[in-house]
Design brief:
Helices cover 42% and strands 17% of the residues. By secondary structure, the protein is an alpha/beta fold. The strands form three sheets. Strands 1, 2, 3, 4, 5 and 8 form a six-stranded mixed sheet that branches. β2 and β3 form a beta hairpin. The radius of gyration is 20 Å and the shape is globular.
Amino acid sequence: MSAASVLVIEVGGTTLRAARFDPLAAHLGPVRTRSTPAPDALADAADANDHLAGVLAVAAELAAEVLGGDPPDAVGVGFPGPVGPDGRVLASPTILRHGGAAPFDLVSACAATWPGARLLCVNDLTAAGLAHVSDGLRDFVIITIGSGIGHKVFLDGRVRVGFGRGGEIGHLRLDLSPNAPRCDCGGVGHLGGLASGRGTVAMVRRHAQLDPAAYRASVLSSRGPHDLEELDGAAVAMAFISGDDFVRSAVAVSQEYLGQALAALHLDTGVEDIIITGGFAFGMGEDYVMGIAAAGGRCSWALGQDWARMVRLDPHGEGVALLGLGRALTESPGSGAVPRR
């Protein structure tokens, strides 16, 4: 199989990525990106499923740029949200933003887009985990902190998701208060709404409203514009990295919720290798990840664990899902050994 014939695509809530995977050198070519269309950005979309199909069409346009118009022999697609064993996406809240959808038939849509190509269609975080399985890891948890939050548990090198609904820790309700923030799925008090990239930015906004004097002393207030609604993840990351006291205080609340989730995953599975990935986490950096690790330790039964060693930022960077797809397609001929989840 030629290097140019393997196409890998990651559909994210914020960013689409596509690249060639070279099976001979076992690495990615240059990664191209495009913003994921917002729910109101595709004029021809009649409903939520039409919008998801439209997002995949935009990803296909990006992929055509990567391949220069050549048809691929194999295509791997990582898609956000739970994916059933039949390749249907059960929900995709980070793209639809509170919108519902009947199961979206991702495999059929990909087969129509790339006829004749061998397909691997999985959840985007499953794809990321497959890169680490290829590295030789057997028992680990991978959790993404980006537009939303999701996780996957790998035991003995295989992802554990049941019908496809597993690995969605971002939709665990942790805030039971009546005014808990809303998650992209429409629920309230979910981890994703409290601690994802979008959730953390919203947390900073809430702290600014509760303590305007502290916000005015923050670097966020001094850089303009002053409208809280214009704050974004990049601005929060910049302030966090600079050591801004106001932002660090607000982010610490989100980190504590993440620590609860990691402690639960560790105490349930016994896994002591926890990999953090996702665009927001990469933007926030190592200090942010170590804060989450410390929170995990505070929320866990202390049995001698070294949480600073257990939790780490993904060394593969933002291309990890693409890398996992490419390796799975080329290391498992026929893709039958890799579940479509």
